From TrEMBL:
Keywords, sorted A to Z: Cytoplasm, Ribonucleoprotein, Ribosomal protein
GO molecular function: mRNA binding; translation initiation factor activity
Highest classification ranks of the organism: Eukaryota, Viridiplantae, Streptophyta, Embryophyta, Tracheophyta
NCBIfam families: DRP1
UniProt source species: Rubroshorea leprosula
Protein name, UniProt field: Translation machinery-associated protein 22
Length: 162
């Protein structure tokens, strides 16, 4: 007796609510119910593959979401009137951060450096308030970075740059 036959037999005897719960559990575990001939329907296979792309299962049942490819620009104020513009996420688009910091420093005539942020990921610190000018420079210099993937953090909220 195959696994799909066991599922079909179980569904014949269980009430509808229990059957829905079991099918949801099986789909979340990556097991889909098969038809009588053993073929998985195309709608179910497409649905599970999109779920697998979004999340990654770790040992112990933990689920890790994949990082979204986005550039986050944040303005940090220090000493009341001095600002630092922080650029995070450029490395996700294949940009070397050391080269990017050199280009940003030359373009805006300020100091720019690659530092490790609080989450142990590298980010670029640019001296001065150049947050809005930096978007045009990033999209012109690196065409792989779409403007729709650039966000600002203003008042603790993520706002799209476009």
């Amino acid at each position: 007796m195959t696994f799909s036959m066991v599922i079909v037999l179980y569904f014949d005897y269980a009430n509808e609510k229990e059957a829905e719960k079991v099918s949801e559990k099986l789909q979340s575990a990556g097991i889909s119910s098969a038809g009588a001939d053993g073929a998985v329907s195309s709608a179910q296979s497409g649905e599970t593959s999109s779920k697998q792309e979004e999340v990654k299962r770790l040992p112990g049942g933990k689920i890790k979401k994949k990082d979204k490819h986005e550039v986050v620009i944040e303005k940090v104020v220090r000493n009341r009137r001095k600002c630092i513009t922080v650029v995070k996420g450029l490395e996700l688009f294949g940009v070397k951060l050391s080269d990017a910091s050199k280009k940003l420093g030359k373009k805006f005539a300020t100091g720019a450096s690659v530092v490790k942020g609080p989450t142990e990921k590298e980010q670029i610190d640019v001296q001065g308030d150049v947050a809005y000018d930096i978007v045009d420079f990033i999209t012109e210099t690196w065409p792989d970075v779409p403007e729709a993937a650039i966000f600002f953090i203003e008042d603790g909220k993520k706002v799209p740059a476009a």
